[in-house]
Write a structure and sequence with these properties.
2 domains, Metallo-beta-lactamase, Chain A, alpha+beta, binds zinc ion, eight-stranded mixed sheet, 440 residues
Length: 440
């Protein structure tokens, strides 16, 4: 019943440096698509493969390292891009990244790619086909920077669709989602996120980007969810991902989650951890274990942790939010009622605007972006105070993907305050905004 995601645009729009990249006149090599490779005999010993879940704070970046082949899935945010490049430098000896894949257009998955493209020669790039218009407004800048860097690179670019297969020696990749047909793409903002399977000998990995339950349902319907050893859990371990039905088929032994400690999103969520524990998966998260490296010879595998700690079973506590009001200012944040937001109503000074699906709309001085209809399980909302109206964001109460979302704003030197709540309640989306003035 829920799935909420609120991001103050103002913060996200601050980022967005465009890297020009350096034009490297390398002819792109041919893609090995669906190349039939003979199965290794059971006795054959494969070289050591290392899969690194790199700690990039809020975001995903996964390095697949096999001898002379390095392949990067997602690149974290622009903010952590120089750390990512430094990390990759330890494993890329020849200056070449054989392949790179962007699961989707979000800033926490492609923001670091321009820096990576600048630092290394990249031969092949896969992405999900998002364009600037397809990318959310908040991600347009990072996506545009990524596309510009690809252009400068001159790499061979592929739009990944279900059934695409490519191999690097014994590394066998297969794209399971999104399907070719637009109609079959899952609902929700992450409905066209790439889901990638990697098989190495008898060990299978599944990388799900930010895929959530709708994408899992589409794959289950198609009967293509593989039984895997290692699952990179979708959407940073939010409660909107890794359904029980999906896990019952995938049966991961190890679950990897990438998210920063003390994130305000409420990730990983206890419900997600419970479902993973239910199938016996050992859960490792960058938030608790730092960089996580899985090493395999194609038969068995081991997990190395940068920070030694037991596998995660309990969600870390949410950081406490303290509204940072200007000194001497006290606003009345009295207890918050919960209303259903289907109709515009007024109860006291609470206003509940109706959320029209799929478009940006304004209400008083506020702009809301609804990214999809909330008829399904997923409802994403973005809001910001209108520019030039003097509102200043004071903070967001933790709980995204978890419980309710609250954002606090002040204006006029703290004499006016506003509190915004987004939540679902009995299956209905709630948006409530309360304003108060000093001394009221
Ligand atoms: Zn995303
Ligand atoms: Zn993400």
């Amino acid at each position: 019943m829920e799935k909420l995601f609120l991001i103050p645009l103002v913060i996200l729009l601050v980022s967005g440096l465009i890297f020009s990249g350096c034009a490297k006149p390398a002819p792109p090599p041919e893609k090995e698509k669906a190349a039939p490779a003979p199965a290794p005999s059971p006795e054959a010993t494969l070289a050591e493969l290392k899969v690194h879940l790199i700690d990039v704070g809020h975001g995903d970046a996964i390095l697949i390292d096999l001898e002379d082949t390095q392949f990067l899935i997602d690149g974290g945010t622009e903010e952590t891009s120089s750390d990512l490049v430094a990390y990759l430098n330890n494993y890329i000896d020849d200056g070449t990244l054989e392949g790179m894949l962007a699961t989707h257009a979000d800033f926490d998955h492609v923001g670091g790619f321009p820096a990576v493209l600048k630092a290394f020669k990249v031969e092949e790039i896969w992405h999900n086909g998002d364009d600037e218009a397809g990318a959310m407004a908040i991600n347009a800048k990072t996506w545009t920077a990524f596309m510009a860097a690809i252009q400068a690179e001159g790499a061979k670019v592929h739009i990944g669709r279900r059934g695409d297969r490519f191999n690097f020696g014994e590394l066998k990749f297969e794209i399971l989602h999104p399907p070719e047909s637009e109609e079959d793409i899952a609902e929700g903002r992450h409905g066209n996120c790439i889901v990638l399977r990697l098989s190495y000998g008898e060990v299978d990995f599944l990388f799900t980007g930010d895929a959530g339950k709708p994408t899992e349902a589409v794959m289950l319907d198609a009967g293509i969810v593989p039984d895997v050893e290692i699952l990179k859990v979708g959407h940073h371990g939010g409660r909107d991902t890794s359904s029980a039905a999906f896990l019952a088929v995938a049966q991961p032994k190890v679950a990897l989650i990438s998210i920063d400690a003390n994130n305000e999103y409420g990730c990983p969520h206890q419900e997600c951890l419970d479902r993973l524990n239910q199938v016996g998966a050992k859960i490792y998260c960058t938030c608790a274990h730092g960089n996580v490296v899985v090493t395999t010879d194609g038969k068995s595998y081991t997990v190395q942790l940068e920070k030694e700690a037991p596998p995660l079973t309990t969600a870390p506590p949410l950081p406490t939010f303290v509204p940072a009001l200007p000194p001497g200012v006290e606003l009345d944040w009295s207890s918050m009622p919960i209303y259903e937001g289907a109709e515009e109503t007024e109860k006291g000074d609470w206003r509940l605007p109706p959320p029209p699906p799929g478009e940006a709309w304004m209400w008083e001085e506020w702009r809301f972006y609804t990214c999809e209809d909330s008829a399904g399980d997923v409802a994403d909302f973005y809001m910001t105070a209108m520019p030039d109206n003097g509102w200043e964001e004071m903070g967001i109460r933790p709980g995204l993907f978890g419980t309710e979302v609250m954002a606090f704003y002040t204006k006029d030197g703290g004499n006016e305050g506003a509190m915004l709540v987004i939540d679902t309640y009995e299956g209905k989306t709630i948006i409530a905004l309360r304003r108060a003035s000093k001394g009221e």
